[in-house]
Every structure is written in structure tokens, then in C-alpha cells.
Input
Amino acid sequence: MPLSSRNIVTYSPAYTIVPTYECFNRCSYCNFCTEPGKSPWLTLGKAQEIFLQLKNQNICEILILSGEVHPYSSRREAWFGRIYDLCVLALEMGFLTHTNVGPLSWSEMQKLKTVNVSMGLMLEQLTPKLLNTVHRHAPSKLPEVRSQQLQWAGELKIPFTTGLLLGIGETEEDWWETLTAISESHSNYHHIQEVILQPHSPGTMQTFNAPPFNPYQLPEVIAKAREILPIDIAIQIPPNLIKDKSWLLACIAAGARDLGGISPKDEVNPDYPHLQDQELSSILEPGNWKLIPRLPVYPQFDHWLSASLLQQVQKWRARF
Ligand code: SF4
Output
């Protein structure tokens, strides 16, 4: 049965590592980035220490999330090399990797495919009008660049996670347009495993002055997304951004079936701590939902993995 089957809600036991917080973009809702040169890059030695501590904690996924070095910067190669090496190290130490580090060149994406069981990039919103507002100083947020990443992931047969950021100045029509674009890309390549619906949740570092996305509207958006997206794409919601327990249940009832990576810290929304799996299970129980762990790659994509990645995935499948 597919993981999104009735009464099952999934999550990925994960740990997020950040190669660097530096980023050449300036999205005004960002609560993550620092100035270029102000965030020392994560060394392999430090990463190894972290991975050693994570051993025997039942953590499967290492989510590699990074600020971006400009594609034409002389430091890009070193930045990319560090990300690649961190993936190799995580795999060598028995974890499964999922990388989301912004737009990549074709050859960068091709190379990361060999050391990741899946990858991701939020489409956010396709409307170009955000380039005049929240994305005025964020060249990586060009809608055509991000759409192309989705296409390349499909051509390269990379199991992919994407999603929408809700409440950053777009309209309802923009949501349906972005979801339709994801659906169309998936119908060409069958490569999207999850779509995240992430409500804007203000944090202490951002300059964007806008209220949080209305959580009570989320079930409605999920229900419509469920109509637009093919059934083999799971809808993911970040449970730490939906404070009210009954509304979390309403989101599940509306069609969300995945809670994403549950990590000690939400690096993108550091002001919103994650509830851990037992607590989430007890919230879901009254709705008769069972929370189960999943791997960062869904079984229908196993045949896209190299023999060595597949071997590691199969070891984890025997455990979960
Ligand atoms: S949201 Fe992402 S791309 Fe935008 S500034 Fe922050 S780290 Fe950079």
C-alpha cells in the first residue's frame, strides 16, 4: 500500500545540518541567513562529531540545508564540494541524505544525485510580482529558474520534494497556478514525492512585516491542493507551524498525510520548535490517525537509485 494510505500519517526522523548560513539572496521573510563570510562553513570533522552523536538515536535522514553562494562566485566550487563531501560522510556513517541547497547547475544536480536518495527545492510561488516585493533582492527566486530545477530533477530521475510558501503576498489564484505547474511537471516525469504547504510564520530575524498565514485557512488550501495534485504526491505540512491541535487534525482530515522531517531544530523557522514524535502521535490519536516513520525516499522511486544507495535504503526499510 502507498505510504499515503488511509489512517496513516508519516514523518521522517531527521537531523538538519547546515553547511553554511551565508546566502547571497535577501528574501525579506528569511530567518536563516547571515551575511556572506559571516558564517564559518561546517567542517567535515564537526559533522562527523554530530553524526557520531546521532548514531543509535533512530535518526535516518540527514537533511542538508544551506545558504547559497552565488553561481558565478569563485567560492562556488568549494561550497558545492563541501556539500558533496558532507553527503558522502553522512552516507558512510549509515544515514540517508536529502539535500536542499537552492538552485543548482545541471552538472551539480547530476553529481548530487549520486549521493542523495532524494532532493528538494521549494517552488514557493510562481507569480513574478513577488520579485518586486519579498524577492526584490533574491535572484535565486526567479520563478523560471525554480521551474527549470523541477524539470531537471525529473529529467535526471531524482525523487523530489517541492512546495509552496503561503502568505508572502500572493493571491489564491497564484496558489492554484503554482500547484497546477507542479502537477504538470509531475505528469511529465513522475518524480515529485511530496508537496509542502508551508504557512508564513513570522520569526524574529525577518524584515518582512506581515501577519502569519491564517492557520484556519490551511485545511481549505490542502483540500484544493489534493484536488489539483496527482494522488501519488503526498501533501506535507510542518506541524510546528500549526499551533492549534484541532487544526492540525483538520489539516490531516483535509488531505495532508506527511509531517516532514522531525528534527530537534527547525532551521528555517527557528522560533517554532518541533514537537517530537510521541507528542505528535498523541495529537493524532483522537482522529484515529497512526503516525509512522518513513525514509526520505518513497518505495516507488527505489529503482532510480544506484546499487549502493539502494542497498543502504533497503537496510533502513528493514528497520522501519
Ligand atoms: S530564504 Fe533561502 S534563499 Fe532566501 S535569503 Fe534565506 S537562505 Fe537565502
The first strand starts at residue 8 and ends at 17.
